[in-house]
Amino acid sequence: MNTMQITTGRRVAGAGLNIVPFVSVDHMMKLVLAIGIERFLKDLAGYIEEDFRRWDVFDKKPRIGAHSAEGVIELMPTSDGELYGFKYVNGHPKNTRAGRQTVTAFGVLSNLGNGYPMLLSEMTILTALRTAATSALAARHLAREGADCMAIIGNGAQSEFQALAFKALLGIRKLRLFDLDAGATRKCARNLAGEGFEIVSCQSAQEAVLGADIITTVTADKQRATIVTDNMVGAGVHINAVGGDSPGKTELHRDILARADIFVEYTPQTRIEGEIQQLASDHPVTELWQVITGAAVGRRDRQQVTLFDSVGFAIEDFSALRYIRDQLARTGLYQGLDLLADPDDPRDLFGMLVRARNPAQHAAARA
Ligand SMILES: NC(=O)c1ccc[n+]([C@@H]2O[C@H](COP(=O)([O-])OP(=O)(O)OC[C@H]3O[C@@H](n4cnc5c(N)ncnc54)[C@H](O)[C@@H]3O)[C@@H](O)[C@H]2O)c1
C-alpha cells in the first residue's frame, strides 16, 4: 500500500491532529547536551518545586504495580486539572546480567480537556534526571548547611545523575563511592572525571560513609537489603534513600528509621513502597511539599538525622514532561509521530478504512 492510499480519507491537509510530538532517546540526549546537564537538572528541579508548591491541585494516587518474582512494571498517572500525564516504568534488578537495564521508562502528556496526547517521550534518561533533581531538591531543604561530601552506595545507572544534581543544587564536590561490583564504581568514577569532583573509591559501605554529610543509597536488589546500618550514620547526616522503592525492597536498617526524621513524597505510596514499609502505618512522616511551602519544618538543627525516603512519585514525572514540552518549539528536538487516527469526518472512523481501500472511487465521489 502506498502513502497516497493510506492517507486518503484522513484530514492530513487539515490541522494535522494525528501528529503527536515524539522525543526519542536520541532527541533526549541531544536536548540534555544542548542545555547542559547541570543547567537541565537545575531547571528540572525548578519545575518539580513549582508543582510541589501547588500540591493540592493534583490528582494523587499510589502508582499501580504489576509484580513478578524478578521485578515490577508500574503506571504512574496524575493530573493538575488541565494536563494529564503518566509514566510507564519498570524495575528489574537482575536485568543487567542479561544486558538490559534495571529501569526503563516512557511517558505521555495530554490535554485533559480534549483527551489528546500532546507529547510522547522516552523517560529512561528523563527518570534518572528527575530522580536526581528531586533528591537534590529535598537535600537542599534537609541537609546541613555547608554539606560538601556525599557517599554514593550503588554506582549503577542512576549514580552519576545523583552526583551531578547534588553538585548543581548543593555544591557537593567530594564523592565517596562504593558498589558491590568494583567495575560499577570504576565506571562511575570514569564518567565523572573532569566534572569537578574529588572522588574516593571505597572498599565497603562503612568506608564510603566516613566523613560524608550526605549518604545516598541507590542500589538495586529485590529484597530487604541492609546497605546502611544504624552505627554507620553519625549525627547531622542526611540520608537520600533512592533504591528502596517497592514492596519488600528496602535498603536501610530499621533502627536508622527510628532515629531519623523522615520526609516522603506522597505518604500513601511511600507506606507501601518506601523504607517506612518496615514501620508501623502511623509512624510520623512529613511530606516534602510541606517543607517546600513552609507548612512544615525541614532540618531543625545540625545534629538531627534526616531521611528522604524516595520512591519516585507521578508529579515529578509530570513536571519532567512539562519541562520537555516547553523545550520543543525552541529546540525542534522531536519528530511528529502519526499516532492518532484523524478521519476527515470525526465520526466516520470506519469510512477512513473504506476510503483507503478504494481511494480512486473516493476521489471521484468528491469531484
Ligand atoms: N526513588 C526513585 O525515584 C527511583 C528512581 C529510579 C530508580 N530507583 C531505584 O534505584 C535503584 C538503582 O537503579 P539503577 O538504575 O542505578 O540500577 P543499576 O542496576 O544500574 O545499579 C544498581 C547498582 O547497585 C549495586 N548494588 C546492589 N546491591 C548492592 C549492595 N548491597 N551494596 C552496594 N551496591 C549494591 C549493583 O552492583 C549495581 O551496580 C533501583 O533499585 C531502582 O529501582 C529509584
Automatic annotation (TrEMBL):
<dbReference type="InterPro" id="IPR003462">
    <property type="entry name" value="ODC_Mu_crystall"/>
</dbReference>
<dbReference type="GO" id="GO:0008473">
    <property type="term" value="F:ornithine cyclodeaminase activity"/>
</dbReference>
<dbReference type="InterPro" id="IPR023401">
    <property type="entry name" value="ODC_N"/>
</dbReference>
<protein>
    <submittedName>
        <fullName>Ornithine cyclodeaminase</fullName>
        <ecNumber>4.3.1.12</ecNumber>
    </submittedName>
</protein>
<keyword id="KW-0456">Lyase</keyword>
<comment type="similarity">
    <text>Belongs to the ornithine cyclodeaminase/mu-crystallin family.</text>
</comment>
<dbReference type="InterPro" id="IPR036291">
    <property type="entry name" value="NAD(P)-bd_dom_sf"/>
</dbReference>
<dbReference type="Pfam" id="PF02423">
    <property type="entry name" value="OCD_Mu_crystall"/>
</dbReference>
